[in-house]
Amino acid sequence: MSALAYSYSESYRLPAGALALGVHLMFFALLYFGVTWRTEPPQGMVVDIWQSLPEPQPAPVSIAPPPVEPPKPIEQLKPVEPPKADIELTEKNKPKIKPVEIRKPVEIKPVQPKQVEPVQVDQKALAQQAAQAEQARARAAQQAAAAAAITSEIGKYTGLIRAKIKRNIVMPADVQDSMQVEFDVTLLPGGSVLSARRTRSSGSTAYDEAVERAIMKAQPLPLPQDVSLFKYFRELHLTFTPKEE
């Protein structure tokens, strides 16, 4: 039994050893070729030295064009159908048309002009109207003549009053001809001076006082004999200038 086992083990020992040797040889071959294939000579390194960092360049901005919408297809116009009448004309709902009545032309009669009766002129009335008009003209003439007489009388006595006052003015020295003084004089019916108020000065006190003294010295001032005219002389506005002396 032992001899059989030994012969059996001997028969398998040789192939097993050959197999183990072949495996080791393959391992060494792979190890050798792998190391030689991986081994490379060292490569050199290149280094650039910069004094300052370069400014970053902005990346170009690309603006995409706006999308262009494709043109819309033109819709085909549909033919418009005429509206259908909802109401059908029948004998009942047909509009009734009245016949036009033709009237006879109206006869226009010519208008006859009325006879104008002659106007009777009243000669007496015309004569009275003419007489009244003549009287009105005469009264107007009389009034105009009276007004002219009153104006003439007022101018006459105003001149007399101014002349009498000027004769009583004692002219002071250094009086210019261009000076002018004005007074409002209030008179009494007999010609007496009630007041003499200076309304404008000549610029010279001496001349103004000389004229005021002359007004008071010249009273009674001359007045018209007709008492009814005194109302025009109650308030007098008198102006005096040295040039008129």
Tell how many strands the DSSP assignment holds: 3
- Largest sheet, strands/sense/barrel: 3 strands, antiparallel
* Elements, N to C (H/E): HHEEHE
Helix content: 25-40%
Approximate shape:
elongated
Low-confidence runs of at least 5 consecutive residues? none
Rg, rounded, reads 76 Å
Task: Explain how this protein is built.
The protein contains three helices and three strands, in the order ααββαβ. With 245 residues, the protein is mainly α. The protein has a domain of 102 residues: Fusion Protein Consisting Of Minor Coat Protein, Glycine Rich Linker, Tola, And A His Tag, Chain: A, Domain 2 (2-Layer Sandwich). It has a three-stranded antiparallel sheet with strand order 2-1-3, with helices on one face. Strand 1 and strand 2 form a beta hairpin. The longest helix has 45 residues. It is elongated. It starts with a helix and ends in a 5-residue tail after the last strand. 8% of the residues are buried. The mean pLDDT is 77.
